[in-house]
Amino acid sequence: MSIIPVFYIQIVITAQLACSPMHGYTEMREASIWIQTISESDVELIYWPKENEKARKNISIKTTENTAFTGTFVCTALEPGTTYEYQVKVNELVESKGKTFYTQPLWQYRTDPPEFRIALGSCSFINDPQYDRPGDPYGMKYEIFENIYKEKPSAMLWLGDNVYFREVDLNSRYGMMYRYSELRKLPQLQNLLSACPHYAIWDDHDFGPNDSNGSFIHKDWSLDVFKMFWSNNSYGIPGLAGGITTQFTLGDMDFFFLDNRYFRTDPKTAGIEPTVLGKEQILWLVESLKYSKAPFKFVAIGGQVLNTDAKFENYAVYPQERDSLLKLIDSNQINGVVFLTGDRHCTELSADTLPGGTVVYDLTVSPLTSKAYDNTTENNTNRIEGTIVATQNFATIDISGKRKERKLTIRVLDSQGKEQWIRTIAE
């Protein structure tokens, strides 16, 4: 089923590694492995094709306090569709071994596209009592990460609010690094980190203060720390300064990861054009979607796009930009667009048939471990009946079928891994 076969090994965090190595982006000829040590260290990654241990290659980096003792190895000159084994040495001692990663297969013009599964979710709050607000804990049910791991995804998509900066974190780069480190050392997360590639966007809580926008004075720190702890294939649109926008392909599906914070303005500020994405990012997105030949085009963005209730931070609060984006998708007859969204602490699936006949979807998956809310009473006229889930949850999307007959099977599961609903969308 999986585009990237996953080998499940119990992770043991050793003395010099702060957490399990994390798999970052994975292509046919290149893959990345992220690590974090507990102190300044010389770290070596040794990797080789599983069937040819003699063909060993090694990369060395040094971790420093300035980057929270993190580092990313980029493994190059790889062969497509190949299993690689690797081990990590810290200060010449083997700290992690017996792990594997798998490059994407070269299927084009050879076979039908591969079948695979992605997992996704948003809003991950890890309790830290000494810095949390008084009252009931906001984070809960961390076992959800173990149950995502059990679903054997080919990739994990983090849809924003992946950490929650506290008041104590926001005005120092150290505070931001500390908050990410608290998530990464969570015991329940360790197996998932090394199980598959991880890709991420951000929303307000891992960008800045609650409901923050591009005016946040320390957004350069936010961007810097985001790059430290995630290993996307790129950050930002060439020619446009700042942001985390990127695009990548898994199998025959294209993924477009948008930045809904760096260029955002306050819709209530007079004299400033209200925007979530900004003209340059929208232009890039629409042209990229038009160019894409993928049967489904997944667009990840922190806040809901198709919810028609103009409240909180739904895109409906910015009606002019939202309508402009949807009109461009419709007028260009861009089919197969599926928005992947988070933020709302409640899961639902929305769909809209645009005036020109183009159908778009919005799969909101939230929260992972944060407090959940029931949004049933919201006036979202695009909601598909029976898809509200008002507890901690995650989703999987299985992509299957022969070329030109592809389909998506969406499953939503609670923190215990119990299925809440399932829907299928055909190409």
Keywords:
Purple Acid Phosphatase, chain A, domain 2, Immunoglobulin-like, globular, single chain, 14% helix, alpha/beta, six-stranded mixed β-sheet
Question: What is the strand and helix layout of this fold?
Answer:
Blueprint: E1 22-26, E2 31-36, E3 41-49, E4 57-63, E5 70-75, E6 83-90, E7 93-102, E8 116-121, H1 144-150, E9 155-159, H2 173-184, H3 190-193, E10 198-201, H4 219-229, E11 246-250, E12 253-257, H5 279-291, E13 297-301, H6 319-331, E14 337-341, E15 348-353, E16 359-364, E17 393-400, E18 407-414, E19 419-426
Parallel strand pairs: 8-9, 9-10, 12-13, 13-14, 14-16
Antiparallel strand pairs: 1-2, 2-5, 3-4, 3-6, 6-7, 8-17, 11-12, 15-16, 17-18, 18-19
Uncertain ranges = 4-13
Total separate domains? 2
Give the ordered list of helices and strands.
EEEEEEEEHEHHEHEEHEHEEEEEE
| CATH topology-level fold name of the largest domain | Purple Acid Phosphatase, chain A, domain 2
Average pLDDT metric: 96
CATH-scheme architecture of the largest domain: 4-Layer Sandwich
Number of alpha- plus pi-helical segments: 6
CATH class category name of the largest domain? Alpha Beta
Sequence of strands across the biggest β-sheet: 10-9-8-17-18-19
- Range of helix content: 10-25%
**How would you sum up the major sheet?**
6 strands, mixed
Kindly estimate the percentage of residues that lie in beta strands according to DSSP.
25-35%
Termini separation comes to 18 Å
The CATH homologous superfamily of the largest domain is called: Alkaline phosphatase D (PhoD)
Shape: globular
Q: What Rg is obtained from the alpha carbons, in whole angstroms?
A: 21 Å
Broad structural category: alpha/beta
* Total beta-strand segments: 19
